[in-house]
Structures are given as C-alpha cells and as structure tokens.
TrEMBL record:
Pfam families according to UniProt: ABC_membrane (PF00664), ABC_tran (PF00005)
Alphabetical keyword list: ATP-binding, Membrane, Nucleotide-binding, Transmembrane, Transmembrane helix, Transport
Main location, first listed in the record: membrane
Stored InterPro entries: AAA+_ATPase, ABC1_TM_dom, ABC1_TM_sf, ABC_transporter-like_ATP-bd, ABC_transporter_C-like, P-loop_NTPase
PROSITE patterns attached to this UniProt entry: ABC_TM1F (PS50929)
Residue spans crossing the bilayer: 28-59
Lineage of origin: Eukaryota, Metazoa, Chordata, Craniata, Vertebrata
Compartments where located: Membrane
Name of the molecule in the record: ABC transmembrane type-1 domain-containing protein
Length: 397
C-alpha cells in the first residue's frame, strides 16, 4: 500500500492533477467567453442556457457518485499488483530455483485481471460512448470531474500527514560531545505503549544498568523483549523517565540521542548502493578501518554454537568498554552476561504467577538466578534438556 501510494498516487499529484486542472480552467474560461459573447449579441439565448447548465451540473454529480468509488477501487486493487511484483523481484532466485515461474505468472495475471479486466463487449461499449463525448462543454464537465477523481490521490497521501509526529530532531539541550562516557542506563517507573489506545507493553519498569554491564534480555517468543529497546530509542514516547549518564532521554533531540547509541537488528537490511555505503553511510571511517572490521569477521558461520561463541567473544572483547543489552532467543548466547532480565513484558497473557502483570519479574546475575529453583530463568534453562542445562549452569559460574 505504501509503495502504491508513493508511486502511482504521487505521480498523479505531480503530473496528471496539475495538467488536468489547468485544462479544466482553460475550458471553463473558454465556455464563459463563448457564453458572454453569445449573450451580448442575443440576450434571449440565456433562457435555454440556464436549464442546460443545470442539466449538466446534475449529470456531473451523478457521474461523480460512481466515478469516485470506481477510482478508489482501482487504486485499491492496484496494491496487490505492486506487492506481487515487488515480492517476485526480491525472490527471483528462489522462484527460478524452484521452477515456479509459471505459477507466479498466473498469480500476476490474476492480480492484473482484478485490477483492469475488460472483455470485448465492454471495450466496444466504452468506445461507442466515448465517440459521443464531443464538444467543449462536455469536455469541460469531464475535466472538472477528473479533477475531483485525482483528488483521491491527495486524500490518500494526506492520510500520512495526519500521523503523529516524532519528537523534535534537535532541542535546545545538547549533551557534551563525549556523552555517554560511562554508559549507565536507568529506567524509572517507565510505561510504554506503541499507540495511544494500545495496551501497555512495559508497565512500571524501574531498573538500573551499571556502566559497561552486559545484560541479557530473555523471554518467550512474542514476549515483547524489543519493547525495552524501542523505549530507549524513543520509537514511541514512553511515560516515566529514562536516564543515560544523568541525562533524561526525553529532554534530548532524537538526533543527539540516536546517534550516540547503536542497535544491531536480528535481521539486518542492506540498502541500495555499495557495501561501503551500507557499512559507513556518513563517511566517518577510512577504508582501512572498514577493511580491518571486515577481516575480523569470519567469512561464514554455519554452526549455531560457533556463531554464539563468536558473538560472546565480540561482546566481551570489542565492546568491553560499552554497556550492551542483548535480546536473545538462545540462552547460551547470553548465559555469560553480567545480569539477566527475564520476562520484561508479555501483554498477550496476564497470568500474575508468571508475568506479574507486565512488570519486570527477574533481574540479577545468571548464576544466582539459577540457584533459585523457583525463578523463571531456572525453569527456562531446565526446559532445554538436562545436558544443555548442565552446560549452561557451568558456563554461568
């Protein structure tokens, strides 16, 4: 839908709407000039012109009642065509490998037929009626209606202008250039939701993360572990206070905040351009520094255990001077963290025995949590099997 609106609809705004509106205005002025000259010569000609004008206004309104809805349907059915074409291009190698070209061609034809299907009878009928649409007056009425049809694109794009804006990019308060030089993070009674009418995904969260600590955040799939990171980056405005080295994040501009903290997503995205542009979009590093970073990274890591060991080694050595929050689905990735944050939030289930109504349930050193058989982290470790659990407990020591 976004691709559709910002391609075809923006094209209508930039190209068709101005030309159509100009054509309508020129035609309207021409009609006014012709009527004025005719009435000046023969004033009685105004008598049939008035009911004729009323008739055309009525026909125009009747035409608009259906044409605007048809235009909306046409714009809506165009979205599956864009979506199918985009997904086909992204998965082109997979389609060819599985020899699924014919099936995807049939899907594309089905979407295209839904968007703009016409049979011979419809084409003939449309042409026969189009021939009758002659004359300046008729053309002017059609162009005035077309202007309103094209305003559908304006309407669709304007929906995005009604979205709630982010906080200011910059504010009058700027942290010093070396901020954050310690890396202490404090959450004070933080509530967080992704929408005004949505449920709280963080509820009264209060926790202090010491400088240079490595904290592992664990929980079940769908538990909302990433909500804490979203609140830290202010992807939506949280309630409460979040401090980074004695600076309130809510008082800083988004640019000052986000350029000082980094996130490595689970599924990285490569943008169009060179590899260098993806690695260093702001040209802050030399080619030699980029090559050194690439050489330190193994060319291939196919074994999960090897990957986990490499991640742990990188966090311990390369990011030794940084505060690191790791969201993990595999316990052995974060078992050697300084602290474990368990089940931060899960708004899908409100079992107070498990989740404590969306509040922070456990926060402590991994080995200490594993000594408490009633702790949720201990139960999670035991669920992976005796052999794996014993290995995790040994690593946590």
């Amino acid at each position: 839908r976004i691709l559709n609106r910002f391609s075809k609809d923006i094209g209508h705004l930039d190209d068709l709407l101005p030309l159509t509106f100009l054509d309508f205005v020129q035609t309207l002025l021409q009609i006014c000039g012709v009527v004025a000259v005719a009435v000046a010569v023969i004033p009685w000609i105004l008598i049939p012109l008035i009911p004729l004008f009323i008739l055309f206004i009525f026909l125009r309104r009747y035409f608009l009642d259906t044409s605007r809805d048809i235009k909306r349907l046409e714009s809506t059915t165009r979205s599956p065509v864009f979506s199918h074409l985009s997904s086909s291009l992204q998965g082109l190698w997979t389609i060819r490998a599985l020899k699924a070209e014919e099936r995807f061609q049939k899907l594309f034809d089905a979407h295209q037929d839904l968007h703009s299907a016409l049979n011979a009878g419809q084409v003939g009928l449309a042409l026969s009626y189009a021939i009758t649409l002659m004359g300046t007056f008729q053309w002017g009425v059609r162009q005035s209606a077309e202007v309103e049809n094209l305003m559908i694109s304006v309407e669709r794009v304007m929906e995005y202008t009604e979205l709630e804006e982010e906080a200011p990019w910059e504010t009058s308060k700027h942290p010093p250039p070396e901020w954050p030089n310690q890396g202490m993070i404090a959450f004070e009674n933080v509530n967080f939701t992704y929408s005004l009418d949505g449920p709280l995904v963080l509820r009264h969260l209060s926790v202090v993360i010491k400088p240079k600590e490595k904290v592992g955040i664990v929980g079940r799939t769908g538990a909302g572990k990433s909500s804490l990171i979203a609140a830290l980056f202010r992807l939506a405005e949280p309630e409460g206070r979040i401090w980074i080295d004695k600076y309130l994040t809510s008082e800083l501009g988004l640019h000052d905040l986000r350029k000082k903290i980094s996130i490595i997503p689970q599924e990285p995205v490569l943008f169009t351009g060179t590899m260098r542009k993806n690695l260093d979009p702001f040209n802050e590093y030399t080619d030699e520094e980029l090559w050194n970073a690439l050489e330190e990274t193994p060319s291939a890591l196919h074994v999960a255990e090897v990957t986990d060991e490499f991640i742990q080694k990188t966090i311990r050595e390369t990011f030794a001077h940084c505060t690191v929050l790791t969201i993990a689905h595999r316990l052995n990735t974060i078992i050697d963290s300084d602290r474990i944050m368990n089940n931060v939030i899960d708004f899908l289930t409100f079992d107070p025995k498990v989740l404590d109504a969306g509040r922070l349930k456990e926060y402590g050193e991994p080995y200490i949590l594993l000594q408490e058989q009633d702790s949720l982290f201990y139960k999670m470790v035991q669920q992976v099997g005796k052999t794996e659990a014993a290995s995790l407990i040994e690593t946590a020591k």
